[in-house]
Structure prediction request, 343 residues.
Amino acid sequence: MKTRSLSVWLLLVSLLFSGFLQAAVELNEDVPETYIVKKGDTLWDISGMYLREPWLWPELWDVNPHIDNPHLIYPGDELYLVWVDGKPRLRVRRGRDVKLHPNMRVTPLDLAIPVIPLDEIGPWLMNHRILGATDLNNSAYVVAGDQQHLLSAPGDRVFGRGPFPDDERSYEIFRAGDTYVDPITEELLGYQAKDIGSARLLSSNRQNVTELEVTRITEEVRIADRLLPLEERIIDATFHPRAPEEAIEDGYMIAVDGGVTQIGEMSIVVLNKGKRDGIEVGHVLAVYQAGGMVFDKVAQENVRLPDTRAGLAMVFESFEKASYALILKASRPLKVMDRVKNP
Prediction:
């Protein structure tokens, strides 16, 4: 449900021309006066409805003392636009019951509108991670199958060697996949850890050989596949998009899932920047394509055109030296080795 108000639009136009509206929170030309949040909405979609730069969503929120966290909105909530000191602000009217207690307010966080469509990355993230060389080389591994058979189904047994922490009973089976290297420094950033399956620890003996039962497989388990403690990875639906606090230098998209050549919206890419570079979950980066080389007929010389902004990516998983990002916007087909910069 959307209703548009001519008076709101006229006020917006006057503010734009009078200079009261900062470019940082510039509204789109046709914004709704009120909007009822629907199931299936994402915070990014709603942000794009109001703002030309959707990651600046927090700048648009107005503090509401009746809401614990203004970045949590739910189906049925009503968003409405107001003006405070000449600046646009969004407020929320709760469209559902909230249980009140003397010292706390209970809200069903699992029903909150997510920032991005989690169904696009949730199942994928469960089966992907980036491992450093040390983590990979020092992990336990499959040394043999039961009766030397190849494993093909849950219930088969496998023997592993290496470090098995005392308090860990469940393990993921991974295989080293693509190698990620920084295109500028040629530093090894890590390895793609390809999901093969899961296993449950049964017992170990004095020769440091551990017996496990395979509980899940995506493909046949092989000798030398790696065994890592099961890592519970939960995608937080409440984080909000924002620009990195630090300047990102020499950032690139170095790989894309699926081995495709062209990258579009909702594609998952690997960036050559990670936690050590200040990259955090929720950071939004602009994607730029390198300008082409043209011949200046007047100056009689080759000139490289400036980089062209072509999309937006948001980080949803950050590792030490690399990270995963989701392409939220693409004005043209993107490709591996396109640059990423602060938006």
